[in-house]
Design brief:
InterPro entries: AB_hydrolase_1, AB_hydrolase_fold, PHA/PHB_synthase, PHA_synth_I, PhaC_N
Pfam families: Abhydrolase_1 (PF00561), PhaC_N (PF07167)
Number of helices: 20
Subcellular location: Cytoplasm
Number of domains: 2
GO biological process, one term: poly-hydroxybutyrate biosynthetic process
Structural class: alpha/beta
Distance between the termini: 66 Å
CATH superfamily of the largest domain: Alpha/Beta hydrolase fold, catalytic domain
Keywords: Acyltransferase, Cytoplasm, Transferase
Strand content: 5-15%
């Protein structure tokens, strides 16, 4: 059938005709691209030539090959299964080819494979409107989903190996997405032609800079780092550092109310990241909000450790961290009793500390709040894929060379849990589109990684993730065997519903380890956004349902949903325990003089 000259094909939903480049300008830009590529190569080779290259990648690649080899062995053992698997993917590709032929003939054809509606990689109209790119997209989805099914259906795999195989397949599939390559991404192809390759020159320049910043390894920028200054427009709540030792600075925040609750509040943040996740800016700052509610807030700022801290272990962080902070708070305020908050691994340390205090009769912490904290690691979430005897031994060997785990290793592990969002979207935007990332305080914090002392990290991996000794009552600290059942103070245990680091179910199980009253609360969103959820935003909800008894699925099904932030609910819980108020306390006015302004000096050290 003939088509009129002004009539568009049914599939012609492309956003615009492909631009015609200026070939002379394009050729010049390709020359500049080669020049910038040379700089990127030099940045990569520099630490190798100096003998400063970081190790560990070979061990990780070996583990991936070994893990996926176990999956292959499972299938090869049964030829019938191999034939079924081949028939499955062959059938899907035949269906795809048939659908493409129908489209070419002007017929309607239902897609064989559709991306998830939340998958931003294929948002450009040409991924569906242009037959070639639609074919590439669907072929990729068929292949990646088939690979995932090969892992899920493989027999005789132990759960840990299966989870690792799923993780590695996800990494490979994310890396091979057609959205990551110019020739197979319609948006990148249009932009490259429109800009005569200028985008690639800018991108290669940023790539060289990021390899240089990573000392030979790629450190993908996720935010405009020049837009933020710690202590100025991030981590800017007023206060003073009133105590400092080898592993922490203690910040006391300036009051903003005439009276405050008599019982001070101590925050124990994670040392895997820096404390100012709780003080991003004035609108998002949990610390600033707490001060406004009439709390005297103290927060630990952990040192960014180096080789001098190699032997600092969990007991060191308890004694020189939490206990030193309690002593300093007493000197600063005259108060022996405090409330405490622990976030993530800081919460695990707080749980360990409370069990030790119960064992020795120390009652200085009268209530505890945990943010997305695991004390039971039987359902430990996606990070558990990095933890088995072989991987821990490899990490320990790396840490033994310098006394610490490089911050980039842990930051990379967290990013790999969401590779499409936290790795490849930025790689495409920065290095192929040539666009510098926009300022985003949360991602600035995310990239501000920290190192971890060898002894501390090894203890954490082995005693918590690998052996789950704390919840079993088998962990020993300072000569005391710890029993969380002897912790009888009130506990507010916050989980987040979409958490992939400390899953809500894991936090629920951990709640049952304590011997006193536990208010288990679930917030919407994930590990960070579910916690940093100020009331003014009214962005996410939370659920309450009393003690964490029975199983998580039953608890959440019967829980009451509340709109908005959980912060006021927690503040009410805290104030009911000790409502007495006193005159506001100024940092440095007690027995401990101010050493410097908040946020202190330790937070400024880069990994």
């Amino acid at each position: 059938m003939n088509r009129r000259a002004d009539e568009k094909p049914a599939d012609a939903t492309a956003s615009a005709e492909a631009p015609v480049p200026d070939f002379d300008q394009f050729a010049q830009n390709m020359g500049r691209l080669v020049e910038e590529y040379g700089k990127a190569t030099a940045a990569y080779l520099k630490p190798i030539e100096r003998g400063e290259a970081k190790g560990g990648q070979a061990d990780e690649a070996s583990d991936m090959v070994k893990t996926l080899g176990r999956v292959a062995e499972s299938w090869v053992a049964d030829p019938r299964k191999i034939m079924e698997a081949q028939a499955s993917i062959t059938g899907d590709f035949l269906n795809l080819w048939s659908a493409m032929l129908k489209r070419a003939g002007g017929e309607e054809a239902k897609a064989v494979a559709e991306p998830d509606r939340r998958d931003a990689r294929f948002a450009d109209p040409d991924w569906s409107g242009h037959p070639m790119f639609d074919f590439i997209k669907q072929a990729y989805l068929i292949g990646s989903r088939w690979a995932e099914s090969m892992v899920d259906k493989a027999e005789d795999l132990d759960p840990h190996t299966r989870e690792k195989a799923r993780f590695y397949v996800k990494q490979i599939a994310s890396a091979l997405s057609p959205s990551n390559f110019i020739a197979t991404n319609p948006e990148l192809l249009r932009e490259t032609l429109r800009q005569n390759g200028e985008n690639l020159v800018r991108g290669m320049k940023m790539l060289a800079e990021d390899i240089e910043a990573g000392h030979g390894e790629l450190k993908i920028r996720q935010s405009d780092t020049g837009a933020f200054r710690i202590g100025v427009n991030i981590a800017s709540t007023p206060g003073k550092v009133i105590f400092r030792n080898d592993i922490m600075e203690l910040i006391q925040y300036a009051p903003s109310t005439e009276t405050v609750l008599k019982r001070p509040l101590l925050i124990v943040p994670p040392w895997i990241n820096k404390f100012y996740i709780l003080d991003l800016n004035a609108e998002k700052s949990f610390i600033r909000w707490c001060v406004a509610q009439g709390l005297t807030v103290f927060c630990i700022s952990w040192v960014n450790p180096d080789e001098r801290h190699a032997t600092k272990d969990f007991e060191s962080y308890m004694r020189e961290g939490v206990f030193a902070a309690l002593d300093a708070i007493e000197q600063a305020t005259g108060e022996k009793k405090v409330s405490a908050i622990g976030y993530c691994v800081g919460g695990t340390l707080l749980g360990v500390t409370l069990a030790y205090m119960a064992a020795v009769g120390d009652t200085r912490i009268e209530s505890a709040t945990f943010f997305t904290t695991q004390v039971d690691f039987s359902k430990a979430g996606e990070l558990s894929v990095f933890v088995d005897e072989d991987q821990i031994r490899s990490v320990e060997e790396q840490m033994g060379k310098c006394g610490y785990l490089d911050g980039a290793r842990m930051a990379g592990a967290f990013n790999m849990l969401r590779p499409n969002d936290l790795i490849w979207s930025y790689a495409v935007n920065n290095y192929l589109k040539g666009k510098a990332p926009t300022p985003f305080d949360l991602l600035y914090w995310n990239s501000d990684s920290t190192r971890m002392p060898a002894a501390n990290h090894s203890f954490y991996l082995r005693n918590c993730y690998l052996e789950n000794r704390l919840s079993k009552g088998e962990m020993t600290i300072g000569g005391k065997t710890l029993d969380l059942g002897k912790v009888t103070i009130p506990v507010y245990n916050l989980a987040t519903r979409e958490d992939h680091i400390a899953p809500a179910q894991s936090v629920f199980i951990g709640s049952q380890c304590f011997g006193g009253p536990v208010d288990y609360v679930v917030a919407g969103s994930g590990h960070i956004a579910g916690v940093v959820n100020p009331p003014a935003k009214v962005k996410y909800q939370y659920w309450t349902g009393g003690p964490a008894t029975g199983v998580y699925e039953d608890w959440i099904a019967g829980a009451s949903e509340h709109a908005g932030s959980w912060w006021p609910h927690w503040a009410s819980w805290l104030e009911k325990q000790a409502p007495e108020r006193v005159q506001a306390r100024e940092p440095g006015a007690g027995k401990l003089p101010a050493l410097c302004d908040a946020p202190g000096t330790y937070v400024l050290t880069k990994a």
